[in-house]
Amino acid sequence: MAGPGPGETEEGPRPGPRNALTDVEGLRVGNAQDPKVRTGVTVVIPDLPVVAAVDVRGGAPGTINSEALGPGGLIDTLHAVVLAGGSAFGLAAATALVAPLARDGRGFRDWGPTVPLVGGAILFDLLNGGDKSGLGPELYGRLALEAYAAAGTAVPLGKAGAGYGATAGPLEGGLGTASVFDPATGVTIAALVAVNSLGGVTYPDEPAFWAGHLALAGELGEVPPPRAPAGVRFETKRGLGQARFGQNTTIGVVATDAPLDRDGLRRLAAQAQSGLATAIRPVHTLFDGDTMFALSTGRVRPPERADLAIRLGTLAADCTARAVMRGVQAAVRLGEIPCWRERFGGGGG
Questions:
Q1: Domain interval for residue 28
Q2: Is 277 helix (H, G, I), strand (E, B) or coil?
Q3: 112: exposed, middle or buried (C-beta count within 10 Å: 0-12, 13-18, 19+)?
Q4: pLDDT computed for residue 242 by the predictor
Q5: Rounded to whole angstroms, how far apart are CA atoms 202 and 281?
Q6: What is the arrangement of strands in the sheet containing 77-78, beginning at the earlier edge strand?
């Protein structure tokens, strides 16, 4: 990050009061999970419609309305974002949310009936040892309604919502969130991710996170630095030879109160994906469908400066990487897969 410009102080970016996506005023988050099935749903509900964009990478994405948000697409506004486990079954969470959103008057109204515009993405958590006998669209429809009813400003870490059944490389994955307030611009940026990656988030056989140097204000606690360079070494979920198509995927949302248009948000989402690349190794593989939505509430008017977009994009990347680490560090063990604290002896924030 560049040093202070004219009129700026030396005070640097810092976490928001909750260190969560809801530090972007006007956004609420709800989570619901089924411990028996080991899966869940997370919803992001804006108080007012938000400008939106999306960036999709990897070889196995599962999304709703991503093409319409893309270049040349009709949609540039969303009324909700849904993140869900369950692979294809989880897509039902996004469609189930349409009815209560319309009932509450949240939707596009120019062509007659209220039509909510919902963006969504899914991850694969079907082989995590849970009881999958109750798996189906009905389950994810129910979880979506529960998450919507629970939406508020508190955002849990670890085993919650879409991150409940997630695994991150050889460790338990989870739901992570982080925020940053930038005194130089008055802008807040925040990220929310469900970390279910093929690649690992730590140096091989070490507690040190790939992106540990980006942690703010002791949010990871006392994590020792890496003992030695990793070189070409990395860890994966089961080893590349045993990975199956689509059994992974990190999905999430990056948001800001800066007034960005769809093109600006598309770039912000792309830079948030760079945050995933900093925190996860390997990432964006054939076996992942990494998807990041970007939202703007437009409530803050930052000062005009030539480097504004670059500054916000860098903060978005760093914030996303921090959210990944926080989600994995907070996750607890559900079954045969170790969690970060268990494998590395506790500690942390």
A1: 21-344
A2: helix
A3: exposed
A4: 44
A5: 8
A6: 77-78, 50-56, 291-296, 251-256, 187-195, 174-182
